[in-house]
């Protein structure tokens, strides 16, 4: 069985795919345009399954590497095909019309919304929403392994995610229950505004959010 | 004139005081118990004014180094004595009865609440809420200068804060308007839960939240 399925082959799908291969996990790539999935598979190299969205996800871990609205559509359309899977929401539901808030109400999160749409038996976790694609592809910034915050209500799912993240040479941080996605999404929105601020010359969608401890 | 007044002489007041002195700024310390202010002044050393809460704040920058509820009381009781000042809210309004959310509604923040109570002409900024006292006293973690996120609606006030923070050998980050305090307070709440989690052995109220850029 394939270990990880990534749906979506944009920058984040490609970056997470790079880390999955660094972790020596088997990978399936799906995209609405199967040709894009095959192109990314060829670019990443190795024995990667590639196909169109709609094809059965073979991974135990299914990463929705698409924007929030597309992620909602995916869990709805896949339905029970995601039962038994760990479904990873990476989205940042920013209201880009104002760039001043999230597009989800403050008493919920993209992750909880997606969990509410997912079929019974699918376990939604939040992860990789605070790692920018450029940084994730490299895996470190300024000599520090990236931190990957994982929020979820299943300890088993979070353990599986921690194993994947660790194998990918990143540092997993258990951020608590799925509702902590609210704080993860909120802060990443703030970090996105910093990247977009021309006054902050060092921040160009290539920074890393890091919790440093005394060495 | 004194440059900075710190009201409150607990761990955060002491740590910010240490940084203010590192910045070679003049300092006034006020505490409900004037004796505590004098004790901290003696401990920090140097030519520091010390007195009771209620005494006129002499600093252009007035740091409310107290919990959220006490900060609200201070701006109300000081009233117009804070006009013309930069008033720094450092609080994290965590609901400690549940340790599961903030105690302010999600469509506002401690900083905005305090700004709403402050007299006309007082300029409230959010700063230092993501720096733990132990870390702040040292000024760096793992060889990295601390990041100090500053949110506020006055560019002039944020510039003054950036100058102070830089002189204190920390890195200021302009986090945007005062309402970005919502995201700063939310994420610090999450970081606090990590420090309190015994499974995360490296996190003991001594970490630093850092935005790393490629070197």
Count of strand segments of chain A: 11
CATH class of chain A: Alpha Beta
Helix content of chain A: 25-40%
**Total count of domains of chain A:** 1
Assign the CATH topology of chain A.
Answer: Rossmann fold
Structural class of chain A: alpha/beta
Measured by DSSP, the beta-strand proportion of chain A falls in 15-25%
| Terminus-to-terminus distance of chain A | 40 Å
Largest interface summary: A-B, 39 and 39 residues
Question: What is the 3D shape of chain A?
Answer: globular
Output the CATH homologous superfamily of chain A: NAD(P)-binding Rossmann-like Domain
CATH architectural label of chain A: 3-Layer(aba) Sandwich
Average of the residue pLDDT scores of chain A: 96
Spatial strand order of the main sheet of chain A: 3-2-1-4-5-6-9-10
What is the gist of this entry?
Chain A has 215 residues and is α/β, with parallel strands linked by helices.
Question: What is this structure's SSE topology?
Answer:
2 copies of one chain form a homodimer.
Chain A: E1 4-7, H1 11-22, E2 27-31, H2 34-44, E3 49-52, E4 61-64, H3 68-78, E5 86-89, H4 110-117, E6 123-126, H5 133-138, E7 140-141, E8 144-145, E9 147-152, H6 155-167, E10 171-176, H7 181-195, E11 208-212
Parallel strand pairs in A: 1-2, 1-4, 2-3, 4-5, 5-6, 9-10
Antiparallel strand pairs in A: 6-9, 7-8
